[in-house]
Design a protein that fits this description.
This protein has 379 residues and is an alpha/beta fold. It has helices at residues 19-33, 78-90, 106-116, 139-147, 158-167, 190-197, 218-226, 245-254, 270-279, 294-301, 314-317, 331-343, 347-357, 363-374, and strands at residues 6-10, 37-45, 69-74, 95-100, 122-127, 152-155, 173-175, 204-209, 233-238, 261-264, 282-285, 306-309, 324-327. The protein contains 14 helices and 13 strands. The strands form two sheets. The protein has a seven-stranded parallel beta sheet with strand order 3-2-1-4-5-6-7, with helices on both faces. A six-stranded parallel beta sheet has the order 10-9-8-11-12-13, with helices on both faces.
């Protein structure tokens, strides 16, 4: 058995909400299950309200009782960066993992790491996106500031790993697919899920789930559905609109899809996620750009077929024709795949394959691989 390590994971966690916070908490539990001591250092201010596009940054419910979470960081207060670094050093970690998903966080995280790197602590950047989906000026310079403070990098897709090798040449890089979440409970019957959501048992239902941003291509999916009116698709859109909702409502009206679209413009609590996935025949991720996605891993957990576009790392984890379809990010290609899915009655076959394939995405595999990688990094 490996020697237990003292691990600090820097990144969002309770009371912050969202996929990265979910991941960090699950990762910390997996490290603990492997015998390591892990504490999370999170934010007391992640985004100033004026910069946050959603309704709330905070989760409902009680804090996890099995995790140690320190809310020490403000993304915009340099005093907190030095204070957090001092407190982390006092914990004497063997290993620091730090989540990086957007250049806005680079000054805070990069500065904290610079206060740690004189120690013998191994510092590994756990990188979701080497560069953001929606680029802005100074992105590359900010990201570089963060990259220079890390001793190595681990990512959740082969594409991001490749980006890191170019952006931080000479530093060790490895990757492993996003593991499956467990906090959304067990799958329920389609009949029960649809009853809870008020959806007809006989409807053909697609799900578009998660925060809605331009790069996620909801407009492509709406156009695709308009090409196949004979299927009378019901599209369930579940998640907050991060940006202009009006343009989508205008598109729905223009395409004559008002009777085909069900919208819940809210953050979906963990306890309700299974209702949406289990009510759907097919989970649609018609992204224009991507790296990896937690939505695919929820689909694996709840054993739902997927339709994804061939961008970023999505095709790495969704074998085309086995658990769903991988298509070009074009409405015609999306419509063709949806039509094939229903005309060839592929739901049961794909669902059975999802149930078999999900064994590839265990937290044990991910945790052991990232620890083995970290132990190759010079201290």
């Amino acid at each position: 058995m490996n020697i237990p390590l003292r691990v600090i994971l820097i990144g969002p966690a309770y009371p912050l909400r969202g996929g990265i916070a979910h991941f960090n908490e699950a990762f910390a539990r997996a490290l603990q299950a492997e015998g390591h001591h892990c504490e999370i250092v999170s934010f007391y201010l992640q985004y100033p309200e004026i910069l946050f596009p959603g309704k709330s940054q905070f989760a409902n419910g009680s804090p996890p009782t099995d995790l140690t979470i320190h809310n020490w960081i403000s993304s915009i207060n340099p005093i907190s960066w030095f204070s957090a670094a001092r407190k982390i050093r006092a914990l004497k970690p063997d290993l620091v993992f730090v989540r990086f998903w957007i250049p806005f966080m680079a000054p805070a995280l990069g500065t904290i790491l610079r206060r740690l790197r004189n120690d013998k602590t191994r510092i590994i950047g756990l990188v979701d996106n080497a560069l953001p989906h929606e680029p802005r000026p100074l992105d590359r310079q900010l990201s570089t500031y963060f990259f220079k403070a890390c001793k190595g990098f681990f990512s959740l897709s082969g594409q991001v790993a490749g980006d890191l090798r170019k952006l931080a040449p000479g530093k060790p890089v490895d990757w492993s697919p996003h593991p499956i979440y467990h906090q959304f409970g067990e799958a329920i019957s389609k009949e029960a899920a649809r009853k809870k959501l008020g959806i007809s048992e006989g409807a053909r239902v697609l799900l578009f789930f998660g925060f809605i941003r331009p790069y996620k291509g909801l407009d492509l999916l709406l156009d695709a559905i308009s090409f196949i009116p004979e299927l009378n698709i019901t599209l369930v859109i579940a998640g907050e609109f991060y940006g202009d909702k009006v343009q989508y409502m205008q598109q729905i009206n223009r395409l004559g899809l008002d009777g085909n679209v069900v919208i819940n413009d809210e953050y979906i609590p963990d306890a309700e996620v299974a209702n949406y996935f289990c009510a759907a025949d097919l989970i649609a991720q018609t992204y224009r750009t991507a790296t990896q996605s937690g939505v695919t891993q929820i689909a694996y957990q709840l054993e739902r077929p997927m339709l994804v576009t061939d961008v970023g790392g999505l095709a790495e984890i969704v074998p085309d024709g086995l658990v769903g379809f991988v298509v070009k990010p074009e409405p015609q290609a999306i419509a063709f795949a949806i039509n094939r899915f229903y005309n060839q009655n592929l739901e049961q076959e794909f669902s059975q394959n999802v149930a078999r394939e999900k064994a590839r995405f265990s937290w044990t595999y991910f945790t052991q691989k990232i620890i083995q990688f970290a132990e190759t990094i010079p201290s």
